[in-house]
Amino acid sequence: MSSSPLSRVVLDTSAVAPPRPEVLEAAREAWREGWSEPSGLHSEARQAAALLSAARQAVAEALGARSDEVHFTATPVTAAHGAVAALAHGRRRVGRRIVVSAVERAAVLAAADFVAGDDVTIVPVDQHGRVDAEAMVDALREPGVAFAALQHANGEVGSLQPVAEVHAVARAHGVPLLVDAGASLGHVAVGPSWDVLTANPSAWGGPVGVGLLVVRTGVRALLPGPEDADPFAPGGVSVPTAFAAAVGLRAALAAQDASDRRRRAIVDRLRAQVPATVPDVDVVGHPDARLPHVVTFSFLYVDGEALLGELDRAGFAVGSGSACTSLSLEPSHVLAAMGALTHGNIRIALHDGVTDDDVERFLATLPRAVAAVRERLGVSGL
Questions:
Q1: 64-83 burial, b for 16+ CB within 10 Å, e for fewer?
Q2: DSSP for residue 255
Q3: The CATH number of domain 9-18+256-377, selected from 1.20.1260.10, 3.90.1150.10, 3.40.50.1820, 3.40.50.720
Q4: Dmax of the chain from CA atoms?
Q5: Which fold does the domain 21-254 belong to in CATH?
Q6: What is d(CA 186, CA 206) in angstroms, rounded to the nearest whole number?
Q7: Do 283 and 274 meet the contact criterion of CB atoms below 8 Å apart?
Q8: What range(s) does the Aminotransferase class V domain occupy (predicted)?
């Protein structure tokens, strides 16, 4: 009798992780209790409003913010676009220059280019993907800077950024700092060094279809457009989705320490064993100052899309290309900014459900997959 096929292993969760059990249960309950329009006056509307208020309060407590500073948006991209547009518009009398790192997510870079065009200063990063803090500080000291944007960590290579250092100087010069915590929140402590923060609930095992935007009181962030009760989410958001996102964040933070230790140990093992078993491979990202669950490898003489397909047929889902433009498999602007190989890369982002057996199977499969791709390309044995 043949054995049952092995289950698939998902190792591509940098943007969307499997929903946590608490999230699924919260969503079911919230759809039963909070389906109504929260702006109404009847009991059903008041129940929905109470759930939305509880969601904002839970996020605020997690971030050390006020509940009225918390905004749920339609998606993480709308949160990023809204943050950039609101800061640019609100600070237009100060100037229109925007200072960004070269490895910001595509949504932030595109929004900055749209609102400021040539008045965008892009600060380079080192070979590990960490921004040159001194260069960024020098840039934001220039006159006419509306705001600066610096991600908390890069979701593609895992490297943490010197956010606290940059924020301290930005605050001293009255320049707001937009921090993209989409790859960090729910995985590592984000801290208080930000003026505007965006995040992605699905990355911590929350629902898809909601983004998070938090604006500190006193920051001039005015989104142009028709008047609405919440200009960052005109017409409102799905209350059950927002509530489930907040429940997911609380669950992720409660498990964060144990999850960090376990996933960091797995990543350490991957970083050590993959180069030992596969020739001509670089481990990308900072070896120490990094997220606990993300690692990227660049393979010489390998097409990234072909390797992704080979691993997919073997039962492993991995990422390739830029973490924020992976659907197009375009060369990664992050790897290019680092001076790393932009083709032949795979990205692994671990969720809590990945087992030791999954890792063993992946480590056994990867060398054969790389060899098969190189063989098809006629470069084996080089």
A1: ebeeebbbbbbbbbbbbbbb
A2: T
A3: 3.90.1150.10
A4: 75
A5: Aspartate Aminotransferase; domain 2 (3.40.640)
A6: 10
A7: yes
A8: 9-362
The answer to whether 319 touches 349, Cβ cutoff 8 Å, is yes
- What one-letter code names the amino acid at 324? C
- How far is 306 from 67, CA to CA, in rounded Å? 46
Phi-psi region of 166 (alpha: psi -120 to 50; beta: other; left: phi over 0): alpha
pLDDT in tens, 76-88: 999 999 999 999 9
Domain residue ranges of the chain, discontinuous segments joined by +: 9-18+256-377, 21-254
Measured CA to CA, the distance from residue 123 to residue 105 in angstroms comes to 14
Q: Do residues 306 and 357 touch, judged by C-beta distance below 8 A?
A: no
- Set 16, 324, 350, 359: catalytic member: 324
Residues 6+ apart with CB under 8 A from 344: 298, 299, 300, 301, 302, 303, 304, 307
> Could you read off the pLDDT of 113-165 as tens digits, one per residue?
999 999 999 999 999 999 999 999 999 999 999 999 999 999 999 999 999 99
Radius of gyration of the chain (CA): 21
pLDDT tens column, 345-355: 999 999 999 99
336 φ, ψ (degrees, to nearest 5): -65, -40
Cα–Cα distance measured from residue 274 to residue 373, given in angstroms and rounded to the nearest whole number: 16
**What distance in Å separates the CA atoms of residue 155 and residue 157, rounded to the nearest whole number?**
6
212 labelled catalytic: no
